[in-house]
Write a structure and sequence with these properties.
Radius of gyration: 23 Å
Distance between the termini: 37 Å
Shape: extended
Strand content: under 5%
Helix content: 55-70%
Low-confidence stretches: none
Order of helices and strands: HHHHHHHHEHE
Number of strands: 2
Structural class: mainly alpha
Strand order of the largest sheet: 1-2
Mean pLDDT: 83
């Protein structure tokens, strides 16, 4: 509790010094995103995180995540329940906001992996009830490792090789043009949908459509 109070006081001091007015960023973030301003970027139904975001983030490990959550809730130790309650609380709060994106739940991915690991270990414990003290690795059945690897391989190859390849290909083509043919670049694309200098590496003017929210 004392560490939390010190962290909040330090955050308030730094924010207020930077903005030159009393400011606490988490409160400002919640005030803006819980208002109608977030709907500027679109809205989603209340169950978006349950029916779309969680399956997308967990992927093939989703059944093990759900089973691990069940184990934590039924007879898990206090620290396992704390992880579960963190996931439930975060999803519940974000579900109350009109604008939803699956990337908002990225900080929960490590927690979901821990729940999935608890599930995988529980299946292994049933098959091998006697613990070997010399084994310092995770006791996970080989069939589960192979299953998760194969189910993850095809989506991973698609994302790495083909997904959004057109945006990258355009930048590679523009980078190959001589200086006489490339004076400036303008992207009439939705914001954040096309990379720029991270792939272009040219000292030329680059402009694009922006998507700043109407805060005024």
């Amino acid at each position: 509790m004392s560490c939390s109070c010190v962290a909040c006081c330090l955050l308030f001091t730094l924010d207020s010094t930077y903005y030159r007015t009393p400011t606490l960023t988490p409160i400002s973030f919640f005030r803006v995103n819980a208002s109608s301003v977030s709907l500027f970027y679109g809205s989603a139904p209340w169950h978006y995180y349950l029916t779309q975001a969680l399956p997308l983030l967990a992927g093939p490990a989703l059944p093990f995540v759900l089973h691990g959550a069940y184990l934590a809730f039924i007879h898990g130790p206090s620290h396992h329940k704390l992880l579960l309650y963190t996931v439930v609380w975060t999803i519940a709060v974000f579900s109350c906001v009109g604008h939803k994106e699956w990337r908002f739940l990225h900080p929960l991915v490590p927690v979901m992996h821990l729940l999935a690991a608890r599930s995988l270990i529980s299946f292994s414990d049933r098959a091998t009830p006697y613990h070997d003290a010399r084994n310092t690795g995770l006791n996970i059945k080989r069939t589960h490792v192979v299953l998760l690897s194969l189910l993850s391989l095809i989506p991973s190859l698609y994302v790495v090789r083909w997904h959004s390849s057109a945006q990258i290909g355009v930048l590679s083509y523009l980078r190959s043009l001589p200086d006489a043919e490339l004076r400036s670049i303008g992207f009439l694309m939705p914001c954040h949908s096309t990379p720029a200098q991270s792939h272009l590496h040219r000292h030329i003017p680059v402009w694009r459509l922006t998507c700043e929210p109407p805060l005024q």
